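Posting for a labmate who doesn't have an account.
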Amino acid sequence: LQGDLTGLSSIKQILWSYCVFKTNDNQWWRYSYEFHKECINIHDPKELEYCNNRVLKDTIAKHNDVERCFENSFKRNSKGEDIDNTVLSELADNWYSSGHSSFPSLTVNGFSSPVKIFLC
């Protein structure tokens, strides 16, 4: 995701992708492929959200489960404002409990290792 999109747009897309995988893991590749094909060059957050919803409904039979996963991941205060996200908190806890709290590293099947990146 690039252009005029904010970090919030990127994080929301990570959550959508996570929820697709969590609820329909056998359809995750299809969703990811179609999202990349249809939505990757969109630079407006509202257009991206519309495109994501269209791809979601076109590729995932149980898209309501995905939408429920996404919406239920947010904790809101009494004013309805987002104050936390259970999925992001879980992913962060998993990251820190793996023993590596710095980037870059690679985690496979719960085992983390630091990674050296070479820029050419």
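Reply:
Got it, the structure tokens are right above this. Residues 7-24 form the longest helix (18 residues).
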